[in-house]
Please model this.
Amino acid sequence: MGNLFKIAIRNLMRYKRRTTLTASLVAIGVIFVLIFVGVTGSFKTMMTGQMTDSMLGHIQVHRRGYIASIDNLPLTMNMKPQAVKKLEKTFQGMPDIESYSLRIKFGGIFSSFTETTNIRLNGVYPEMEMKTLPLFASRITTGEKTIKKGEIVIPELLSRGMKVNVGDTIVVIANNKDGSVNGKQLRVSGIIESITGPGGRDGYVHIEDAMEILRMEEPEISEIAIRLKDFGKLHAVYDSLTAMLAGEQNNQGKPAFEVHTWEDLTPFYNIIRMIDIMTIFIKIMLIAIVLISVMNVMIMAVYERIREIGTIAAIGTMPGRILSMFVIEGFLLGILGAVAGNVMGIGIIYILKAVKITFAFGRQTGLVLSPTVALQDIAMISLIVIVVAVLGSLQPAFKASRMEPIKALRHV
Amino acid sequence: MELMKATNIVKDYMVGEVAIRALDRLNFTIDSASFISFVGPSGSGKTTLLNLIGCLDKPTEGTLTVAGTDVASLDRRQGAAFRGANIGFIFQDFNLLPVLTVYENIEYPLLMVQNVPAKEREERIMKLLDAVGMLEQEGKYPDQISGGQKQRVAVARALVTNPRLVLADEPTANLDHKTAYMVIELMKKMRDEFRTTFIFSTHDQKIVGEAEIIYTLEDGQITEREEKGGNNRG
Ligand SMILES: Nc1ncnc2c1ncn2[C@@H]1O[C@H](COP(=O)(O)OP(=O)(O)OP(=O)(O)O)[C@@H](O)[C@H]1O
Ligand SMILES: [Mg+2]
Model:
């Protein structure tokens, strides 16, 4: 085996320029994939982080059917206090859950005394909300970074459109569950940056103010956002939570709750999926580059060495040995390209990271791109390259192993 | 001792629809440790015959047994194994592997064809390097030595596996006269030392004289068999 490698290495060195060119081509492919994966990966992580850490949380639980009619924010589809207690108990028993936040979502009329408009509001427990959404406070651009009783945090667009500022007093009027109307005067304590996606233009009030406006005796919760300790366990926790809640049934004997991951809740998840699909296509291109370049070079190598093949076949080298000789050559070309590509690719990613490129996402600007590639990605890409290089050399190698020695020896 | 026997062997080449008879009913036997030459003009069938004896090709008719094996019965892999175990080859163009040194070229059949342990490999190679006078050049690559030297390396490579038979198709055609003689003398010396049968083809009348048995081929037929001295028969 060692000797097959020795011969293969010497043959690769025999055509230094050609080997260098082919390995470079493979390396360039690897570099492109690494940079693409690194940059989009960083973008993906950041986008995901923005979605989950400033608005959605990782997982949300609602009464069954709520998401289907979330556009109306129906108060009739909130969860009863005892149901919420049961859920809270379940969450507290799950070590993977870092925190959760209870929200009453409702729609109302917002009046600045001179003008009125619609508003969608979340009544929240401030500490719960802040703990579950670590980036929430950073969204409040002006005013106090909290939500106190008697105060309201209004969305940026509303503030601009209605010319309402921090310190102003406004009125929120809303329909109650039974249809009657109630209103409350609130002081604007902060302005929250809008973010792209559903719910990104909602205002926030303290949950007790929400209860007062809606004339609730006890909190009837529309939505529970959950934050996990380890985002990587998203689907595992989702599965176990779904399983645990499947037993909870309503009066009609149907499951009482619905559980969604953030992926189900934002259209941006599709963009992330698109990035993944693009990554697949880029990988297919890499495969094509490696396959064609290695195959090409190996076909040439076999053709040039027909007489050598005839010689070694005549003196008794087994066809399988001849096959391995050429396959190992392709394998080594793959390794050479993969190593060179990884070294340069990681180098470039490191530089991109050091340069601190910024980009904007939706209305957020100045997000710093910090591309990284996981060890798994490097291993995966290297594996693809090496396997494809071997596959590319297989056909020429097979041809070499099947040559008739006398024909090969006569070849000029 | 009889090493090989040809009975009525015929070799036809198909060129399109037409069969060209390259060998026409040859009968002969060759004994172990003999030093034999096939001579004849171009196109007389020397290469064709040597290919058959070397198990690189199969006769169209007749039977050819080499070392007790019917050549026609071997498939591709068996043929390779048989050649690797019993036959050494010397080529007109030397056919050393350019990426291997002199030493490694001689080592090649021991490593890649047979599985000879390292210590024995080294012993055999050193002995042959000495015998062909190439000890000093063992680290050089083929493109760093002369044609005569290359052929000496090729002789060593052919002998290193201790074959029963060494076949050389026009081994001296690319060598100058003096070197050609030296190579033939070397082959003879090797025959004396290792008791290996040598069969070579040539159309060089002067070189032919070195053989102990000379077969003359013409149009695919043996027209003459000349034996000199006869001391090496049996
Ligand atoms: N592969 C082939 N296909 C068709 N005809 C062939 C083939 N090989 C040899 N022949 C024919 O068979 C005959 C014998 O050829 P061979 O090569 O054995 O002659 P040779 O004695 O070795 O000649 P030379 O001294 O030129 O090498 C010639 O007529 C040749 O044209
Ligand atoms: Mg010939």
